[in-house]
Amino acid sequence: MKHIHILAFALAASVGSFALADEATSSDPIIAPGQQTDAWLNAQSKGTMASENIQAAKGIQRDKAAERFMKTYDYAIKESYYGDNFKPGK
After folding, report:
1. For residue 76, what are the CA distances in angstroms to 25, 34, 86?
2. Sign of the four-CA dihedral 40, 43, 47, 53
3. Closest C-alpha among 9, 13, 39 to residue 28
4. How far is the CA of 57 from the CAs of 3, 7, 43, 60, 62, in angstroms?
5. 17 and 33 in contact (C-beta within 8 Å)?
6. Residue 10, burial from CB neighbour count under 10 angstroms (0-12, 13-18, 19+)
7. 3-state secondary structure string, the chain?
8. CA 26 to CA 83: how far, in whole Å?
9. pLDDT of 5-62, one tens digit each?
10. Other CB atoms closer than 10 Å to residue 7's CB: what's the count?
11. What pTM was estimated for this model as a whole?
């Protein structure tokens, strides 16, 4: 139950963080860096926010996903990426 309260607080704070800066008041909660992320990761690992609807992949979907994964082994990993001229946004 404690995790649900923490998650609810973090979610409420994240919704409140979308308010304009001039609308913020001193009563708005201050969220520590990483607190929202921790709440979401905890909810994910504990399943507290999980859907009640079963979302299973069909056999053909699983086979195609496995096939795509296995194709990644067809390409060698480069020893170094130095000098590849990686640039942001490309």
Report:
1. 55, 36, 19
2. negative
3. 13
4. 30, 29, 22, 8, 6
5. no
6. buried
7. CHHHHHHHHHHHHHHHCCCCHHHCCCCCCCCCCCHHHHHHHHHHHHCCCCCCCCCCCCHHHHHHHHHHHHHHHHCCCCCCCCCCCCCCCC
8. 50
9. 454 555 555 544 444 444 556 677 788 888 999 999 999 899 888 888 888 889 999 9
10. 19
11. 0.35
Q: Which residues contact 16 (CB under 8 A, 6 or more apart)?
A: 28, 29
So where are the chain's domains? 1-18+31-48
**Number of residues that this document lists for the chain:** 90
Asked if residue 31 lies in contact with residue 19, where contact means CB atoms within 8 angstroms, the answer is no
- Please tell me the distance from the alpha carbon of residue 65 to that of residue 59, in angstroms, as a whole number: 10
Q: Position of tokens 């000098």?
A: 83
